[in-house]
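re: that chain from earlier
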Amino acid sequence: MEQPLCLTAQKRRHREQDHYLEVTFVVHPIPQAVQIGWAIDGIQMKGERRLAVQMMPLCNKSILLWESIPQLFFVKKVKRKNYLNNFLILLLSVACAPNTPNSPFDFPANGLPEFNLSSKKYYYPEVLNPMHVKQKGEYLILMEIYRIPPEKPLIHLINKTTLSYFSAKGITGFGPNEIANAELFDPGFDPNTFWIYSSRSKRMSEFSLLDTNRLSISEFRQPEGMFMIYNLYFTKDSTFLGISASDPNRLIELDYSGNRVNAYGTWEKIADRSDLDDYLLGELNKGWFRANSKKTIYVKASIFRDRLEIFDYRTKEFVLVDGPRLELPKFKISGSGANSALIFNPEEAYGHRDIAFGESYIYDLYGGFNEAQIQQSNVIAKTIFVLTDKGEMVAKLNLDRSLRSISVDETMGKIYGITTDADPGIAVFDIPKDLLEK
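^ sequence. v structure.
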């Protein structure tokens, strides 16, 4: 059982002429106590209310024995003794509140480990401006931003073992077996292929891992009934799971003809913001949509607010994890009706930047930098939070360089990330052995 703490008080100075009292409250034992100064009104005397207090509290989930509190002080001619005693109890209650975490992301208050990771960078001249890194089999798959010269490939394959460049995929365009952009990676269910979703051309394109042909080998074009759906994945039930641009539900499931099969989760209303319709609520919660290779867990990591939505496809249940920031970002609504949009305060920092999956854990790349800071320093994210698929926090990883996207191979014990420096490449980190052995 944890040892209770005792509270003592020491009178430091008592000037009779103006009844000025200074008291030091000390909570024992106090390892590495930090002294905090207070100047608080509390005693009525000669038209002036003053009580100066110095406190050294460090309670940290300990038990305070009120019966052990001695008579703390006495001030001559003070008539408001009951008021003062009540004030002291309130003051002590605030000072000795347990040091509990505000959210699962609150380190070190949650008592979970932090690790500082160092990396080695690999540069590839064929890669121009990569936005995403994912993996399939023995390859890392890098996806370029679409604003590169149209003759350049949008997809690159890197051997995970040797970290050597293997081949390029993807011809930019809207023609057959071309892709307009590489927005989302889907590993699919064939061990020799992978899929890329293009949000600009509304199609899924399948590429082979066995050849160097840049054109896709097959494609699926979204039917009219799926026009409002973006960032969609195949499910193991021969359906699609995606996000609608305007819908009361968080996730929509559709068949290959675009018919709505099911819907999961509803947006919670924001207090005193009845002006936020389904579209604007979707914008407030917008983020990166990712799925594990088994298509059992889907995660949306919000970029504007700090929220993870973990969806278990087996149980059809959500786990919402809020933090590190618990408050909503500042925003205003521009326009009205169908032309309305959320405009976020540019001083607001971005939140979650990417999600990767290992066999055991979810890896959440977190930013915390606003646009001005990113433009000035090229730093997007240097923190990875490690969680279970139940939303339970496991560890925090502090990175030695900034990343914009990550992929994880727990079998190889590696984290791969796209760097954000002038010559972006792949940074490789070792996953702490203590983390993998848990």
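The first helix runs from residue 81 to 95.
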